[in-house]
Amino acid sequence: MVNKAHKYTQEFKDSTIQLALNSEKSAYQIAQDLGMSDKTLYAWLRDYRKKHHLISELPNRTTNNSPKESLEEENRRLRKENSKLKMERDI
User: Fold this and answer.
1) CB pairs under 8 A, 24+ apart, for 46-52?
2) Quick check: 9 and 36 in contact, CB under 8 A?
3) What is the pTM of this model?
4) Per-domain residue ranges for the chain?
5) 58-84 pLDDT, tens per residue?
6) What is the CA radius of gyration of the chain?
7) What number is the average pLDDT over the span 53-60?
8) Cα separation of 16 and 31, whole Å?
9) What is the pLDDT of residue 69?
10) By the 8 A CB rule, do 30 and 41 touch?
């Protein structure tokens, strides 16, 4: 397997972290939009939160039902939003 190491500028890294923290998009989607590895962005966010003593907004992984329930809630919300946007577009 070929290792494709990228060197990102500190400015790019900082702006990407801020985008991920302040956007309604998921970190995964932001990484995809920017053409970078989601693992890289997750590592940057983890380091940023640790450095700035921020509480992670990741779901609690100790219980099996919590992440599943939050994903289902998110799916419901996104479906509702998608329906509204389709209606607005059609109008």
Assistant:
1) 48/17, 48/21
2) no
3) 0.56
4) 8-58, 60-91
5) 544 444 444 556 777 878 888 888 888
6) 16
7) 61
8) 9
9) 60
10) yes
